[in-house]
Specification:
Elements: E1 2-8, E2 11-16, E3 27-30, E4 34-40, E5 51-52, E6 71-77, E7 82-87, H1 93-98, E8 102-108, E9 117-126, H2 134-142, E10 147-150, H3 156-159, E11 160-165, E12 169-178, E13 183-187, E14 194-197, E15 200-203, E16 214-216, E17 221-227, E18 232-238, H4 241-245, E19 249-255
Parallel strand pairs: 3-8, 9-12, 11-19
Antiparallel strand pairs: 1-2, 4-6, 5-7, 7-8, 9-10, 12-17, 13-16, 13-18, 14-15, 14-17, 18-19
Bound molecules: copper (II) ion.
The site of copper (II) ion has 6 residues, from loops.
Amino acid sequence: MRETVEVAPGVKQQRWTFGGTAPGPTLRGKVGDVFEITLVNDDPDMGHGIDFHAGSLAPDRPMRTIEPGERLVYRFRAERAGAWLYHCSTPPMLQHIGNGMYGAVVIDPPGLPEVDHEYLLVSSQLYLGTPGSEAQVEKMRRNTPDAWAFNGVAHQYAERPLKVKTGQRARFWVVAAGPGDGVSFHIVGTVFDTVYKEGAHLLTADGPGGAQVLDLAVAQGGFVETTFPEAGHYAFVDHDMRRAESGARGVVDVTG
Ligand SMILES: [Cu+2]
């Protein structure tokens, strides 16, 4: 559906969405779960579809474009753990994803421990202008976004920080929606003791190693964990500073 939403403080933009928001609703489950999603196309002007990376199946029917007023039921079984992208499957996908038609599916690795705080940050680029217009799509082709964002709104977590207490463990799931850029996720002042990327633990807290960044190419996902040693304001950023300074940033407000 089409929604006009805030994409940066004081900036409104029409977006193409799953369920009224970009990113769309997050789905979460365990290995072996079967998901059944009903997609209803209430866009009066355009066909759309959906593609869930979290399951494998022949794309032909479930990923087909449905016309305005139509619906389809998409069923997949999550055979493997990971942080997965879903997105509109209708070409040209560059402009459907670039206008907001993406979201995340989180399938927990077996035995995933509880933590004090868990967040999901979907990174994306933002393109202002009339959705699908030649001027807007040309910016997408050139990969010259107007802004970068976590969860669809540039700078939002700088204005509304995440709140954590010292010593608490926080897990940050990150999925890179693109459409053109991945993400180099970093939290200033912290070291990640756990890194899980594309279905594999690269680092676990019981070993001596640490990590500074979770690097994700477009459509990859994973999580990192850390604790915050003392009270303060810990900025999180896409460490590509062009992107951080244009919206892909936030703050973790840590209190004692
Ligand atoms: Cu679409």
